[in-house]
Each structure stands twice: as structure tokens, then as C-alpha cells.
Amino acid sequence: MSYDPSAVRHCYPALMDGWAYLDGAAGTQVPRAVMEAEYRAYAAGIGNHGGFFAASQRSDAHSRAARAALADLLGAPSPDGIALGPSMTALTYRFADGLSRTWREGDEIVLTRLDHDANVRPWVQAAERAGVVVRWAEPTLPELELPAETVTSLLGERTRLVAVTAASNVVGTRPDVRAIADAAHDVGALVYVDGVHATPHGPVDVVELGADLYATSAYKWSGPHLAAVAGPPELLETIRPAKLASSSDAVPDRFEYGTSPFAQHAGLAAAVDHLADLAGPDPRLPRRDRVIASLGEVAEHESGLLHRLLAGIAPMDHVERLGSPARRAPTVWFRVRGLAPDDVARRCADAQVNVWSGHNYAWELAGLLGIRDTGSAVRASLSCYSLEEDVDRLLDVLSDLGGVDVGGLGRAARPAAGLPEPETLPPA
Ligand SMILES: Cc1ncc(COP(=O)(O)O)c(C=O)c1O
């Protein structure tokens, strides 16, 4: 088995445009196999779900395939405990609504200032409605680590929920979720893990992690704009979000509002197949085994690139990195002295390097660091298809920003002319 990122890139038509896509934390590109799966689903005919005719049954099959694929991706207890939805944010609001209906005044929940706002605000607002106290776990400064004790020291007999990230979407910090979950379970609290940033960067086992509920978004790992929350079906049975009187009360359907995007469900299953085959392991192995092997190799590849990026930034006095977590996803947050983060991102775009600027929804963290009102920071994130060349192009831009002549950008940019036209879809 061997991981060949250059070969992997050929699966992604969008990457042929010559830009360095260092924006995977905000969403990755999509491989041809996912586009084709969605095309085939539409071409074969789909219907609304639960009907007696074949097109409807095909739609239900796409949803079942998506849940089975997610169970393999996450090591989830059962495909029947996987709720699909349009985004992690939307699903988290549904779970916050459902879970908070059993909270009582004076109960407590524990949140962190490391988390993306989607794993913060839905809980804060649900807590306000229920008269529940929010306890805040603070990351350490300046490392931006979240040692387990910062969370576990806040637990008590009234704690109902701990919401914590498996990896920060800006500084990459990977807290010890298992230690946090064990302590939370000792006091009878549930653990809701935001796995959106963590999922594409290494094998996930939600049971091993101790997550009662684990959220992930497929568009961060080569899939369509869809998300899922995975948990044991028995737990989902106990959670009752608002729903229509007329819609199914079965689990997981009760969390899936309205008509689902069935063709995208087909795309999601294809994305998991794509991840499973990234490192080209033995096709006779079960998909779960292939996912673990492939994502293990992706993690190694990305970690090599991360070290290259960090080593390249280290001697640049004009670049200030935010955080230095020991266990981390391959995502870096930084500021460039004398330049607004938006201007840095613009300079990068001039050199055909995609990076993000701003708070990236790490709202509490940007507030804690006191940078929210000054454009926050710039984020570069690596993906399974990133190359050393992409990292070097970013380093070239940053290096030029520290020099006298900041007009000399784009030295490493590839020519925009002569690039292939976007692909057209194959016949059905
Ligand atoms: C760590 C993390 N959590 C949650 C979200 C929200 O995900 P969604 O866009 O699916 O609502 C994001 C999106 O960037 C994220 O990076």
C-alpha cells in the first residue's frame, strides 16, 4: 500500500486549475467519483422517500448507503443511529433543542472557548431558554491547548452535557476527548463532539473516543454539502427535537427535517468509498478497514506537510503563529505584522494561493485572543491532496510580505493560461 498524493489529485477536476487549495478547513474539492455518483442518481430517477415505486425506493437506498458509509467512516455503533442533515450547524441546533427539553433550571453544561461557534452558540441559546448554567473551559495561553483538566475540573453532579471539539478548525488543537468523555460519563453527562475538522485528518473511532454524539460535515472530506450526527440509536430514541406532527417519529428520521437531498446522499457514500481507497489498500478488505488504513496514511502525509509549513514560518519574524498545540490537525492560524489578515489573504490570492482570513467562526477564541476586532487571523489548512509545492507557494508569499518589496508576489504562481476547461459529465 502506498499513498500517492499526485495520483490522488487527478481524481479532483477542480485541482487542475493551478491554484494551491490551502482552504480545505472551509471545504475541500470534490472528486470525480462523487460527481458521477450524484449524476447517476439523478439520471436513474429519484423520488420522494417511502413510496411503492422504484424511483422512490432508489432514494431510500441512497440514504441507507450514506448512513452505512458514515458508520464505516466513523466506527459508529449502527447506521440506524446516524442522522443526516444540511450542515453540522443545523443538526447541532436540532440536538440542542431536543436535549435541552430535559434540562432543568440550575443544571449545568460545559463548553469550550476553543470550539467553532456551531458547537457553542446552539448550546448557549438552549441553556438560556432552560435556565441552565454555562461553564467555560479556557484554552491555555499562548499554546492554545485544552488540557483535559480544564474541562473535567468544571464537571459536577448537575452537569448534563459537555460539548467539545475533536480538533480546532483554526489552530488545530486536538484535545484528549477520551479523558474528557470518561470524566463526563462519571457524572452522568453526555458528550457532544464536534468532529467536523478532525474527520478528514485521520482515522476516527467514535466509540473509542467516548463520544455519545459525534458531528461531521461531508464537505470537509471530499463529499457534498451535507452533515451527520452519529450516536447509538437507543440514545437518539431518548432525544425529542421539535418536529412536524405529520413527519416520521422513527430514529434517525425524526432529526431529518423536510425532504432530503437523495442524490447528495449517493455522493456522500461515494466520498467515503473514495477516502477508503485513497491509499489503494486491498479491495477485498472491508470498507471500515480500508478507511482506517487510508486515513492513517493521509495523516502521515499531512503531518509531513505541516512540519514543512511550520519550519518555513519559524524564521519569519514578521509572521506570528497563534497557538502551538502538541497534538494537532494540519491547520495553522497566523498574523503578518503590519498587514490586516484580509490583505494577507488577498496577497495570497494574487499568487493563486487559497487561504482564509477572519475569525472562521472561532468566535470565542478570537475574542479570548483580543483579535476579533482587528480582522482576527489568516488560516492555512492542508488536505489529503495538498503537495509540498502548495506549501512552498504560501511560504514564498509570506516571505515576500516580510521583505521590502511586497509587490513581488506571485513568483511561484503557475500560469493561468492554457489550463484545461472544466470537465463535462460523462454519459449515464
Ligand atoms: C470545526 C467545525 N465545526 C463546525 C462547523 C460548522 O459546520 P457546517 O458548515 O456543516 O455547519 C465547521 C465549519 O467550518 C467547523 O470547521
What are its keywords?
single chain; 428 residues; alpha/beta; 7-stranded mixed sheet; 4-stranded antiparallel sheet; 14 helices; binds pyridoxal-5'-phosphate
For this structure, the quaternary state is: single chain
Report the C-alpha radius of gyration, rounded.
22 Å
Strand content: 5-15%
Percent of residues in helices comes to 25-40%
Largest sheet: 7 strands, mixed
What global shape is seen?
globular
Spatial sequence of strands, sheet with the most strands: 2-8-7-6-5-3-4
Q: Uncertain runs with pLDDT below 50, 5 residues or more?
A: 404-419
Fold topology:
Elements: H1 5-9, E1 20-21, H2 32-44, H3 54-74, E2 82-85, H4 88-100, E3 108-112, H5 121-130, E4 133-137, H6 148-152, E5 159-165, H7 177-186, E6 190-194, H8 206-209, E7 213-217, E8 227-230, H9 233-237, H10 262-276, H11 287-313, E9 319-321, E10 331-336, H12 341-350, E11 353-354, E12 356-358, H13 363-368, E13 377-381, H14 388-402
Helix pairs in contact: 2-10, 3-10, 3-11, 4-5, 10-11, 11-14
This protein binds pyridoxal-5'-phosphate.
